[in-house]
Amino acid sequence: MIVAVVVLVSLTAAGGLALTALGERVRPAWTAVVPVVSLGLAAVLAWAAGPASDGVVQATTLLAVVTAVTAGGPVATAVLRSADPTSAAAGGPGDPEVLRGGAWIGLLERAAVAGTLLAGWPEGLAVLLAVKGLGRFAELRAPAAAERFILGTLASALWAVACVGVVLLVRR
Q: What region, left, alpha or beta, does residue 53 occupy, with left being phi > 0 and alpha being psi -120 to 50 degrees?
């Protein structure tokens, strides 16, 4: 059963990479359901399987971080599109609601969230989110930008936490 967990986390990482490569403008929002279901199934199997060997835990940890980084963008974009389907969730170059650099910031944010949790330093989440908020403070005066910032940040961070959750289930 633990092999199935590793395979599912691997497929979720690969699927997230493929969805990210498609780009926000091309991929439908419903495609984010696939990584969510896949990761959820991996979590259930990890819970049922019990603790794994050190090598499996290390592999799962690496794959979970990759999954957090690669599949988090499609998940966050789907949440943004679901919250406001009339908004240009993918946003064009002239779209004032889109915060520039958000995709790259999201990648780094999810890696940092996973890293702080895996390092056993959950307080790092507060530091990370505070720094992110301060960095965007001037751009958040527009209500639409503030809403996108909050939704995108929460969706992105929760996805990374879910990925780390699978690792914790495999470790126990």
A: beta
